[in-house]
Design brief:
single chain; 250 residues; alpha/beta; Spore Coat Polysaccharide Biosynthesis Protein SpsA, Chain A; 7-stranded mixed sheet; 8 helices
Length: 250
């Protein structure tokens, strides 16, 4: 794959005015002269995030595209935001490589080169920055939240496939072919469980999956932000996805 391949950064944002400038600066610094566009999906921020982005888009040489939406469902719609930006990158953005990141600086732009290198040398179709590989590091995340994350991730590995160590981290790199598979699928989840559904689609189609150690930085992730109902819904979703995966319904 040519080093000149067009990169689409898929970036959901919601009330990230404190983080958006350093994040965009970091991406710009670490991608340099590469051919890339950052597709941001804002789900109704009220802190000035979309206004900041629109202002940045008036400046010469910007590499931004903004999709503005209004949430129509309770809870996080991060999955549907990822899907919308990915579809734009496929249909209009001319993307060859796709990178998914969070808008809160939990995913470090310094690691962009590591994920892109694995895709570009052709050793994988999908690359995940994994919190659970030797050499990985997690900071600013309470121990209780870490334990919940580990237990949930182990449960998903047992249900879906042990070949992936981190189903929940949204720092992902993938080829246009991998994106096209998702774009053609009938996606059922717009919540964060979307990450597991998409991974199951890739596994079912024999996509080559690689991982590399990451430094994950927690942002406002106390246990108080977890709701039992969300965990129950996620558990039901994982079981439903596993059924479709193992019985050839994906």
């Amino acid at each position: 794959m040519s080093i000149s391949s067009k990169i689409i950064i898929v970036l959901p944002v919601l009330n990230e005015i404190e983080n958006i400038r350093p994040l965009l600066d970091g991406i710009r610094q670490h991608l340099g002269d590469r051919d890339y566009t950052i597709c941001l999906v804002d789900d109704g921020s009220r802190d000035g995030t979309p206004e900041f982005i629109r202002d940045a888009m008036t400046r010469p040489g910007h590499r931004l595209h903004l999709i503005e939406r209004r949430k129509t469902h309770h809870g996080s719609q991060r999955g549907s935001a990822l899907f919308a930006a990915m579809r734009w990158g496929l249909c209009e953005g001319g993307g060859s490589i796709f990178v998914e990141m969070d808008g809160d600086l939990s995913h470090r732009p310094e690691e962009l080169a590591s994920g892109l290198a694995l895709i570009e040398k052709g050793s994988a179709d999908v690359v995940i920055a994994s919190k659970y590989l030797p050499g990985s590091k997690v900071t600013n995340r309470p121990i209780g939240r870490r334990l919940v994350s580990i237990i949930c991730n182990l449960s998903v590995r047992a249900t879906i496939s042990p070949r992936v160590t981190d189903y929940s981290n949204g720092y992902r790199f993938y080829t246009r072919d991998a994106a096209a598979l998702v774009g053609q699928a009938k996606i059922r989840y717009g919540s964060p469980i979307y990450l597991t559904e998409v991974m199951a689609i890739w596994i079912s189609h024999g996509m080559r999956i690689a991982e590399f150690p990451t430094h994950y930085v927690g942002r406002n992730e106390g246990l108080s932000k977890l709701r039992v109902i969300d965990l129950v819904k996620a558990s039901i979703g994982v079981v439903e996805i596993a059924y479709r995966l193992h019985f050839g319904r994906l």
